[in-house]
Amino acid sequence: MLPSRAPYLSLDFVLPAAFTLLRRLNAGGLLSRDALLRALQMPPDEFDACICALREYGVMVRVSAAGCYTLAEPADLLDAGSLASHLHERGAQVRVSVRDECISTNAMLLARVSDDEFHAQALACELQTAGRGRRGKTWQSGLADSLTFSLGWRIKLPVQALSGLSLAVAVACAHSLTALGIDDVAVKWPNDLMRAGAKLGGILIEIARSECDYTDVVIGIGMNVHVRDTLRADIDQRIADMGVAGRAMPSRNLLLAGVLHELEIGLRQFERSGFRAFKSEWLRLHAFEGRRVRMAMNERESVEGLTSGVDDEGALLVLTEGGMRRFHAGEISLREAA
Fold first, then answer.
1. Where are the alpha helices (DSSP H) in the chain?
2. Which residue, 315, 320, 322, is CA-closest to 337?
């Protein structure tokens, strides 16, 4: 039986040490408690707290009858060197760094907007403790079972020309997954990725700085790679992951490199041609196209109608009893009508 976490050792305190322990266990083999304590130079109480922290975030640590520790299955951890190699093979210009844990990758990149290397800088995090989503929601994930990352990018367009950017980003993400054999990804207006009617990922774009001829944006993306049953039970909506029956899951390093490369291509195309270059492909991927939906503007106001595509600025067109209406990102949520 695993020990209870010492009450005076908070998760924030033990997380750095927990990642050190995880990497040691991830190297493989059965390791005794005493051997781990000596190798990591860790006090017993901190060790017990680390084991419990890993368990709370979904990492299954086994303890044998002889008191030896091992992982139930290897953790697919991100590696900056592997990511750089995958990106170099694709000729990508994006640079990426990896953190074990942070509050929010978007918040960290927003704070770096004045840095000379902000443009094309990506930040990935194994564990976001307060990842932000659209309309104040949080992105929930376990440890090493999703991709949570942000990309800083300078677009040579004024902020008013960025309509439809989140839709273009969704198309780029879908294309990157298709290239890796995950070929049934759909999009949901304005910023979700879907599989089989369930949420696979989400996109949050924030303006970091704008001038008359360019805009610095931070593009935050969360994508489920492998969702454990315990996490599904804690989330109040249907969620999907990247599993494909009969096929091994691509590594998270390969997945992230593929998404970043496709994002780079897509952002350069958006800079040249705007959302119109993505419109037909977005419509092909739209999970709710031609279906009856309920558009909820707030808790009290909603409209029902048939989705009828999007315009050249990415606004959703809905045919209602009162005629065609246009809806812009950030104003509504989309739910299929009963």
1. 11-26, 33-40, 44-56, 80-89, 105-110, 165-179, 229-234, 252-273, 279-285
2. 320
Give Cα separations from 189 to 47, 88, 139, 277, 293 (angstroms).
Answer: 45, 32, 18, 17, 11
Q: How many CB atoms sit inside 10 A of residue 334's CB? A: 18
Which sequence positions are flagged as catalytic?
134, 199, 335
List the structure tokens of 259.
Answer: 């998404």
Burial 257-280 (b: 16+ CB within 10 A, else e): bbbbbbbbebbeebeeebbeebbe
- What is the DSSP pairing of strand 95-102 with strand 121-128? parallel
pLDDT one-digit tens code per residue, 222-255: 999 987 765 555 566 789 999 876 788 889 999 9
Count other Cβ atoms within 10 Å, centred on residue 112: 15
Distance CA 32, CA 69 (A): 6
What is the chain's percent helix, strand, coil content, to nearest 5? 35, 30, 35
| C-alpha–C-alpha distance, residues 71 and 67, integer Å | 13
Find out whether 315 and 328 touch, Cβ atoms under 8 Å. yes
What the block records as the tokens of 213 is 């001829």
Task: State how far the Cα of 157 lies from the Cα of 70, in Å rounded to an integer.
Answer: 52
Residue type at 179? A
Closest CA to 133 of 71, 205, 232: 205
Q: Which two tokens stand for residue 306?
A: 């048939």
Residue 203 C-beta-side C-alpha neighbours within 13 Å? 28
Dist CA 119 CA 100 (whole Å): 22
| pLDDT of 227 | 79
245-281 confidence digits (pLDDT tens): 678 888 999 999 999 999 999 999 999 999 999 999 9
pTM of the model: 0.89
Q: 96 near 87, Cβ under 8 Å?
A: yes
DSSP assignment letter at 318: E
Please answer whether residues 185 and 174 qualify as being in contact, where contact means their C-beta atoms are separated by less than 8 angstroms. Answer: yes
Q: What are 57-86's pLDDT values in tens digits?
A: 889 999 998 999 999 999 999 999 999 999
